[in-house]
Fold these 2 entries.
Entry 1:
Amino acid sequence: MGIMDKLSRLFTGAFKHTSAPQSSFDSNAPFDSDKYLAANQEYTDAFCRTFDLTSIEGIRSIDAAQLDEWKKNAPGVPSTPVQILSKQASSYHSSKQMDLAIECLRKVNELYDYDKFPYRQNDYLRLVRYLRDAKRFDEAREEEAKIQARFGHKDETLPKDSFYINYMEDLIRTANVLNTDLVQASTAPNCCELCGKYRGRIFSLTGRDKRFPKLPDDFHLTCGLGLYAFVYGASTPLYVKGDLLTESKKPFVDSRTPEEREAYAQRQQQKTIDATDRDDYAWLQEFLPDLAPKSFGGYRRMKNLDSNNYKTLKVRAAEMGHPIGGEQAET
Ligand SMILES: [Zn+2]
């Protein structure tokens, strides 16, 4: 939904404005898992009484931009709006109420945009998978193209237009409050080559502070690196090993250990396999619906077992010009 749509819907009062209850859970008391679960359930129930998750109209009328209070008061992650709707989608999927399941996920994707948590392309694509499960193939293709366009490419990364911008805005706000131009980049194991160059340093946000390098434009938050406002002489350099100035200014060379590189390469390889399997399963659902297993999990199992049914699928798919299992078409 575009910003103008959002605004006009706000003005026409199409959205329901409701305030969130306070949770009964005392997060300062020693952790009691029964109380925690009960508080989450109670909060989820309150959410479901306030918002109608049983009709398409009801789900649509939830205003993703107005749920800050619901997010803030939730006693735990399981009862945040995004998780409630996400779980509701799974439940509708299991009971074959696909229209409702899909509507929940549309709302979930909208909610992702307002969250501080980094959601990945794969999270957004769950909607596309549900559309295919519902045999709404054209819509699935359209939605998939939109999501991929937003992420810029097929690889798993973060949308520049929401999470990254929100994150940077927050960071700059905090830095301004602290009256600093410096940020600390955290470290992450098994990150990519780029993060391997940037992790564990102090950067200048604007380039004003010449003692430190300017925060690079291609810094990304996909691999688990974070940026934290840093006050020179006051903040603890949690992630910088050694002298701040020397460490931050050293040449930008990939600092990963061979083990970290290997772990990253393996993860990438697994991601490629996962993506191929997803693509193949989507194709089978549409073009060999009678032979395709009922679920993606089922497809993965038959593929890993290399069962006879899988071999049949392979032959049929190849005959139709779409070899599956990562094999190249003969040219
Ligand atoms: Zn990275």
Entry 2:
Amino acid sequence: SCYANVVLQCLTFTRPLTAYLLEGLHSRILLLGPKKEWCFTCEFESLVMLAKKGKSPLSPIGILSHLHNIGSNFGHGQEEDAHEFLRYAIDCMQSACLKEARKKPDGLLADETTLIQQIFGGYLRSKIRCSRCKGKSERCERMMDVTVEIDGNISTLDEALLRFTSTEILDGENKYECDRCKSYERAKKKLTILEAPNVLTIVLKRFQSGKFGKLNKDVRFPEYLNLAPYMSGDDKSPVYRLYAVIVHIDVMNASFSGHYVCYVKDTQSKWYKINDSEVFYLLNSCPN
Ligand SMILES: [Zn+2]
Ligand SMILES: [Zn+2]
């Protein structure tokens, strides 16, 4: 369950999120209604409140003991588990926000306007140009994280983002179904970030579907990341400062089992490494 542990640690260092949870609004609003089944957000809220009182490291046993209820997808330290668990946790809090909104008098709230969406959500733009009719189509989709490929000669995060936003040729089995041509055609596709999120989550795709093993190479990442080169929107200063990193460590070089540790930065800009219940202060600041 260390994959869940590291995700929860990192989330407790996500300040806009903890600021919201520390208000205790979630559990207070829910108290008005009938007591129902186990709730991730209630559990996480009380965990964050304990952390505020200086209890560190956190012992999220209340959540970990419910992992079996959460879904059969969570395995035993598999590479993708931390990412899946993060998605699960954020989805839970998103639906809790929507539920809270419905209990208020002016209870209308769109998906896009929840606090969770405002913290983690952004928009991707996908532009496709058909090679036959030269017709262009453009789509925007919500994103909660950016998942980048790191295979081939990628060795830095900037290279991975550059590839993520580079023009891709859709051909062969991957051809584009063109509305105008009414057929599958060769096409060019380009992704860009249209709206940068307030808190950016980047996932390095170390685990490739259909392939055994894990991409174990180093990928350098900066403490300050400027998203401007990868954007099509008009966000003036999409500069991010790193505050949390999750690392998967192979056990016996097998990607199907492993261990997770995380690095987090506190309000005094001090970095810590958290390995299960052990916390280490890092002298050399940023873990990159
Ligand atoms: Zn709840
Ligand atoms: Zn076409």
